[in-house]
UniProtKB/TrEMBL annotation:
InterPro entries: Acyl-CoA_Oxase/DH_mid-dom (IPR006091), Acyl-CoA_Oxase/DH_mid-dom_sf (IPR046373), AcylCo_DH-like_C (IPR036250), AcylCo_DH/oxidase_C (IPR009075), AcylCoA_DH/ox_N (IPR013786), AcylCoA_DH/ox_N_sf (IPR037069), AcylCoA_DH/oxidase_NM_dom_sf (IPR009100), Mycobact_Acyl-CoA_DH (IPR052161)
Domain Acyl-CoA dehydrogenase/oxidase C-terminal: 238-386
Similarity remark: Belongs to the acyl-CoA dehydrogenase family.
Required cofactor names: FAD
Protein name: Acyl-CoA dehydrogenase
Pfam families referenced in this protein's UniProt entry, alphabetically: Acyl-CoA_dh_1, Acyl-CoA_dh_M, Acyl-CoA_dh_N
PANTHER family: ACYL-COA DEHYDROGENASE (PTHR43292), ACYL-COA DEHYDROGENASE FADE29 (PTHR43292:SF3)
Residue span(s) of domain Acyl-CoA dehydrogenase/oxidase N-terminal: 8-125
Annotated organism of origin: Pseudomonas lundensis
Membrane-spanning residues: none
Length: 394
């Protein structure tokens, strides 16, 4: 991908920036720079209304194909939108999982009926999704899933039983996509199916997980004979692993550039404080700040290279390093933030003793190298899938 932008692209950038300035105001001004990782439980109702504001501007699904209700924006334009969104302080997206994961997956694997049913509410900012992948015994090693689904032929429904964990915003979601074992004797990635499950039913219990940050955007979700109709199976029974992996490929899409702009906002805050409190005069801290700045540029260029491939959920070899690279970089940024703050890093202003933005950043980044695939697992993936090295003994 050409990492430069044309004059037309820059005009589009100006349009996005102006729209954000005009609309991220009034009641939405309190959302600026809020709702990101470690802060995802901030003002969920207002952030849902913000999704509807985005929908009015046709920004939800802007990169989707026009036949699915999107604008069909080019990769360059999508990159620009995500960058300007984050630059303006756009809040963490309540609709990210629907727009970034469910939508592209349905476009690739869903039936026409499924697309017509589920895509419009996502585009309108009216239906919200959560992800039913990880389990207590199946995190980085996702193929260990034990959640089971059996088919009730009389009612033409799937019955789901099991437990999912670390489910972001499950308590705010209308639907969950669930990876479940539908072949009783199957093991590993065989015999799994991909189901869309309504959350508002008696067979589902959601329990929040309170974290070090004091927030609880993650949840445990218990399925006790939860039901979903047969038409909510994506693909065929047993194709769940293929679809789940494609979905994770979509997750490595253009939104990664928005994530990096959020990182830039955090780094800018660290630099601002370093200049204000004198920490910028410390040569070791200056070196670490420079290292963070250059590391973020490397992340950007690798993402642009990653996006030069097909946008069908398949992963180019360079995409395998992204999770390892950004999580390690972000972890170090959290440490740098505390060292720049100095003694202030250990103090809170007073009741109700809420964490500052950088304190929350530090605590939350402790988990970056674990969730979404631990660094150890990611290194195995790089070795085996990208470099073709012998598989580790199981």
């Amino acid at each position: 991908m050409n990492i430069g932008f044309s004059a037309k692209d820059e005009q589009f950038r100006q349009h996005v920036a102006q729209w954000m300035q005009q609309h991220l105001s009034g009641e939405f001004s309190t959302l600026r720079f809020r709702g990101g990782p470690g802060d995802e439980d901030f003002a969920p109702l207002l952030r849902k209304r913000w999704e509807q504001e985005l929908a009015k501007g046709n920004w939800i699904g802007a990169g989707w194909a026009t036949e699915h209700g999107g604008q069909g924006l080019s990769i360059n334009q999508q990159v620009i939108f995500y960058e300007e969104y984050a630059r303006a302080g756009g809040p963490g997206r309540m609709g990210h999982i629907g727009e970034g994961l469910v939508g592209p997956t349905l476009a690739a694997f869903g039936t026409a009926h499924q697309q017509q049913r589920f895509l419009p509410p996502i585009l309108a900012g009216q239906q919200f999704w959560c992800q039913g992948y990880s389990e207590p015994g199946a995190g980085s090693d996702l193929a260990n899933i034990t959640t089971r689904a059996s088919f009730d032929t009389q009612r033409n429904e799937w019955l789901i039983s099991g437990q999912k964990v670390w489910t972001s915003l499950a308590h705010e979601a209308d639907w969950c996509f669930v990876l479940a074992r539908t072949e009783p004797a199957s093991k590993g990635h065989h015999g799994l199916s991909f189901l869309l499950v309504p959350m508002a039913q008696s067979g589902i219990t959601v329990q929040p997980i309170k974290q070090l940050t004091g927030t609880s955007e993650f949840n445990e979700v218990f399925f006790d004979q939860a039901r979903t109709c047969a038409s909510n199976l994506i693909g065929q029974p047993g194709e769940g692993w293929k679809i789940a992996m494609a979905l994770l490929g979509f997750e490595r899409g253009v939104s990664t550039l928005g994530q990096q702009m959020q990182f830039q906002n955090e780094l800018d805050e660290v630099v601002r404080i370093a200049k204000a409190n004198g920490a910028a005069q410390d040569p070791m801290l200056r070196q670490r700040i420079a290292h963070a700045w250059s590391g973020l540029r490397v992340l950007r260029y690798n993402s642009l290279r990653m996006l030069s491939g097909p946008q069908d959920g398949s992963l180019r070899p360079e995409a395998t390093i992204y999770k390892l690279a950004w999580s390690t970089w972000h972890l170090e940024l959290g440490k740098l933030a505390m060292d720049v703050l100095g003694p202030q890093a250990e103090l809170l202003a007073g009741a109700p003793y809420e964490l500052t933005r950088l304190q929350s950043l530090f605590l939350f980044t402790r988990a970056d190298t674990i969730y979404g695939g631990s660094n150890e697992i990611q290194r195995n993936i790089i070795a085996e899938r990208a470099l073709g090295m012998p598989r580790e003994r199981r």
